[in-house]
Structure formats: C-alpha cells, structure tokens
Specification:
Length: 115
Amino acid sequence: VQLVESGGGLVQPGGSLRLSCAASGFTFSTYDMRWYRQAPGKERELVAHISGVFGGGSTNYADSVKGRFTISRDNAKNTLYLQMNSLKPEDTAVYYCNAPRISLWGQGTQVSVSS
C-alpha cells in the first residue's frame, strides 16, 4: 500500500507544473484523495480534495489556490493529479498526496517557484 508523487521541480513565477501521485495496494477509485503542502517553517495545509466514485469526483480547493490549481484523477491508472498554473513564489513547498481514510501519505515532491 503506497503513494508515490512525482512532477515537482523549479519553475518561474507564472509558470505551470503537473504533479502526479501513483497509488497502489488499495481500491483507488473508491477513496477520497487529497493534496497537501508544507512550506518551510509552516504547518502542512490542505490544498485540494477530490472524492471517490461514490462521491461523484467532486472537488474542493483552498482559497489560496482556487482558480489556479486543478485536482483530478484517472481511476483506470490509479493516479491522482494536481495541475498548477499561474504559480507564485508563495506556492513553494513540499507537496504530498494523501488518502485520508487510511491515513496514507506519499513521500512528497518539492515545488519551488522562483525567478
């Protein structure tokens, strides 16, 4: 049972990145999934949430990323995504995917936004 993130990196302000989270060992499609982030010296914060199939795949976002980030999932590929556009320096953080029902976390992927 694991989650493995990828897709982080260094990007200039205004740029875009897409994070991926590969899930294994559980019935991915039926689980709500989340993206969190943690910046240096700050608490981990919830970025986006997407429900499983029984919730219709509904989504919710933190106010700080609404309109810029999009959470999605491909249940056939057991993969969660986070499309991040119009990135700002304050988006710099380690991003984690999470399956809250089973308290499962990935190892995190670093996103750095800087000119």
